[in-house]
Amino acid sequence: MDADKAERGHARNKLTTDMLPPTTKKKKKIRILLADDHQLVRAGFRALLKQMPAVEVVAEAADGREALDLFKKHRPDVVFIDIAMPKLNGLEAIARITREFPNAMVIVLSMHANQEYVMQAIQAGARGYLIKEDAVSELKAALKGVTDGELYFSPHISKHLTPGDLEKVGVRCDPLAKLTTRQREILQLIAEGNNTKEIAFLLKVSVKTVEAHRTQLMQRLGINDIPSLVRQAMRSGLVPPEASPR
Q1: Distance of alpha carbon 171 from alpha carbon 231, whole angstroms
Q2: Got the DSSP string for 19-74?
Q3: Distance of CA 7 to the CA centre of its chain
């Protein structure tokens, strides 16, 4: 009798256990790095992202060099990055991140709808391009598209793009391709109005080293004066068109 009761109790326990739903695993959040040189802009986007339960902002950068360092430190899933930033512009930061981490997912956040910038961003390795004014309505869709393995563009951008445009990205001729990474850095800093001593201080090298790089990059570009260097940097998207030496 006691044995029968024990067996029935065991059967009831087993039935109850079998009817329980399977254990659900907590879904991993998408980890975000925000890179923009304007603190208010970062705060605005951080507030938008906080409204998404599946998203977590793990770090913020105020310039391209800091974005690169923070990416290496935190290894975020997605980077939202502006193009026009000091010390190291967004395009160069994207290229370096994706060169070292080919699976990195980078989305440009920019006020520039210029097709040249879009093409250069995709060529550098970005997987999406959002115009800042579209971000409120497009941020969630951009995240989903890029994390699903697709390219994503703001409506302002996509309506002007054709499949042929994207096919051309891989074969575009970049005038700065002949420069070394260090020379591109120095060109940007020159275009931003830094003098030789300031550049040497920022890069932690000697003045003579900066002068040597400047001479070499001018020779490679076939340019003989600083104003022409600045114009070339603007045309190539290394600095925004409105930038000018201080």
Answers
A1: 23
A2: HSPPPPPPPPPEEEEEE-S-HHHHHHHHHHHHT-TTEEEEEEESSHHHHHHHHHHH
A3: 63
8 Å CB contact between 180 and 212: no
pLDDT in tens, 95-141: 999 988 888 899 999 888 777 888 888 888 898 898 888 777 888 88
Helices first, then strands: H and E counts in the chain? 12, 6
Q: pLDDT tens digit string along 12-70?
A: 444 343 444 444 445 688 899 999 999 998 898 899 888 888 899 999 999 989 999 99
Tokens 């989305």 locate to 107
Q: Judging by beta carbons within 10 Å of its beta carbon (0-12, 13-18, 19+), is residue 163 exposed, middle or buried?
A: exposed
The distance in angstroms from the start CA to the end CA of the chain is: 96
Average pLDDT over residues 135-149: 83
Tell me the pLDDT tens digit for each residue of 5-14.
545 554 444 4
Q: How far apart are CA 142 and CA 149, in angstroms?
A: 11
Q: Which two tokens stand for residue 204?
A: 């932690």
How many of the other CB atoms lie within 10 Å of CB of 134? 18
| Domain locations along the chain | 30-169, 175-235
Quick check: 85 and 37 in contact, CB under 8 A? Answer: yes
Q: Which fold has domain 175-235?
A: Arc Repressor Mutant, subunit A (1.10.10)
Candidate CATH numbers 3.20.20.120, 3.40.50.2300, 3.90.1210.10, 3.40.190.10; the one for domain 30-169:
3.40.50.2300
Helix (H) or strand (E) run with residue 108 in it: strand 105-110
